[in-house]
Amino acid sequence: MTSYEEALAVWRNGADANLRQENGWLALVGLLWLQVGDNTIGRGGDNKVVLGDVEERWGKVVWAGEEIVFWPESGAGVLVDGEEVEQVVLRADVQGNPTHVGRGGIDMILIQRGERYGLRVWDNGRALRQTFTGRVWFDVDEMYCVEAEFVRPERPRTAIVPNALGDEVVETMAGQLRFKIKGQALTLWALPGAENSLFIIFKDKTSGQDSYAGGRYLSVPAPEKGKTVIDFNKAYSPPCVFTPYATCSFAPPENHLPIRIEAGEKYQRLTFDE
Hints:
With 274 residues, this protein is mainly beta. It is 8% helix and 36% strand. The chain is built from two helices and 18 strands. A six-stranded antiparallel sheet has the order 17-16-15-14-11-18, with no helix packed on it. Strands 1-10-9-8-6 form a five-stranded antiparallel sheet, with no helix packed on it. β14 (175-181) and β15 form a beta hairpin. The longest helix is centred in the first third of the chain and has 18 residues, at 3-20. The radius of gyration is 21 Å and the shape is elongated.
């Protein structure tokens, strides 16, 4: 392999390791939406929030006004951020440091999506964490690693980004990336990314055929002197491919490319074991 291919193989192995990690996407087994008022949690069908292989009753989550409070069941041995408590106001994921509630390999947090609140549940004993053989990729092609010009909009630019919940979220774009593939001029709009990067959600003519129908994700380095590099060999599928309980964002209309991008991750249909 060339040095580029070797570096890319390391990156792809890391992408698979992230999927398999504790509380990773392969461990996600539930997304349970809450109702205003009391939401009892446990194994039995009389609970409003039904978990799998857990005690008959873990406790209850009470949604009252602007607070969502967890009350553990006495003797259930459920821990909140690793400690036993009598009650706790749950921090949601949008606050950046959500409260973790769990016992053994089962863990859950509160998530907020618009005006909805739900419990995201992981089972770290899930068999798929061990049996997953890895993502499937197009062959490496350095033609799809291209230099791009980054152009900031003169005025704030927004785009409507659809998601797996059926919402259409208005997002503010960081700027536009302009580049060429096979001599064809193309553009993509980028969102602000993590750790000094840009984040792209795009579709192309492989979407719904060789790659995931909702599009693929791609992180690119923050521009320097108005330039960056887009490496489509690192394009990857959103987590909806690996669990039915993700709330993925999909490509906005502005980011539907008119060509086939035969690079990055291919789509593979998984059989879920829930």
